Amino acid sequence: MPRDHSRRGVIGASRFAVLAALVAAACNTDKILQVEDPDVARPSSLTGVAALPSIRAGAIGDFANGYNGNGSEGQVTLAALLTDEYINTETFPTRIEIDRRNQQINNGTLSGLFYDLQRARVSTDRADIAYKAFDANNSAHAEVLGLEALTFVFMAEDYCGAVPLSSYDLTTGIFTYGAALTTVQLLDSAIAKSTQALAVTGLSATSNFRYLAQVAKGRALLDKGQYAAAATAVAGVPTSFQYVYVHSATTTRQNNATWGLTVSVARFGVANLEGVNGLPFQSEGNSKVAGFDPRVADTLRGGTHVGFDGATQQWIQQKYPLRTSPIVIADGVEARLIEAEAALNTPDAAGALVILNALRSNAALLAQRGYPAGSLAPLPLAGTTAGQVDQLFKERAYWLFLTAHRLGDMRRLIRQYGRDRETVFPTGNYFKGSLYGTDVNSPIPQTEQNNPSFIAASCVLTTA
Question: pTM of the predicted model, to two decimals?
Answer without folding.
Answer: 0.90
